[in-house]
Amino acid sequence: MTWRMVGCITRLVPQKGVHLIRHAIYRTLELGGQFVLLGSSPVPHIQREFEDIGNHFQNHEHARLVLKYDEALAHLIYAASDMLIIPSIFEPCGLTQMIAMRYGSIPIARKTGGLNDSVFDVDDDTIPLQFRNGFTFVTADEQGFNNALERAFNYYMNNAETWKELVQKDMSIDFSWDSSASQYEELYEKAVLRARTASRS
Asked: What's its top-level EC category (predicted)?
């Protein structure tokens, strides 16, 4: 049997969608996957809740909760995960999805803020094919999240070659400032050209 490994690397705070992270642990196992969480919470009752969940799965071979900050371990989880969940309620920018893609872990992200600007659903026909790089959902509830997670699992199981191509594409995406700067320059030049054209007329 092929195990799909779902990772989550985050601060456990309400902004990050902790109710969906909690749900993801159980749903991943129901779908026959493995789940690993790395993170901790400054909110005492959230930290306790995840400690209880971690204790519940202490001897489970397919689930592990590591409730601390560990930079070295984070990189190992990025590298080992097939998918990485980012179910944020809001996210001004977000680096997790970019790091995940560089490691070849496909993001499953909520369409909000910076996530909406960098993760584009593989099934979204309104997005050019070359930009589609993950799985997204809109509503921050279990149903919305389930839809994205289950589509990702089905894609992984039924489209092995296409999944490999998706991984390769994600690993080659350029999120550097060089790429962003050239886009800003292009926008600036177009704006200047429009302004000059308007002033002449």
From this structure: transferase
Two tokens, residue 191: 């704006």
Q: Long-range pairs for 89-94 at CB < 8 Å and ≥24 separation?
A: 89/14, 89/15, 89/16, 89/17, 89/140, 90/15, 91/15, 91/115, 94/118
**Predicted pLDDT of residue 2:** 63
Helices (H), the chain: 18-30, 44-56, 71-80, 96-103, 113-118, 142-158, 160-172, 177-200
pTM: predicted TM-score of the whole model, two decimal places: 0.87
* Across 130-151, average pLDDT: 97
- How many C-beta atoms surround the C-beta of residue 29 within 10 A? 16
- Joined together, the tokens standing for residue 197 give 């054209």
Q: Could you read off the pLDDT of 147-169 as tens digits, one per residue?
A: 999 999 999 999 999 999 999 99
- Label residue 39 exposed, middle or buried (CB < 10 Å: 0-12, 13-18, 19+): buried
pLDDT tens column, 174-194: 877 666 566 667 777 888 888
Query: Do residues 40 and 69 touch, judged by C-beta distance below 8 A?
Result: yes
CA 76 to chain centre: 16
Three-state SS letters, 137-195: ECCCCHHHHHHHHHHHHHHHHHCHHHHHHHHHHHHHCCCCHHHHHHHHHHHHHHHHHHH
Instruction: Provide the pLDDT for residue 191.
Output: 84
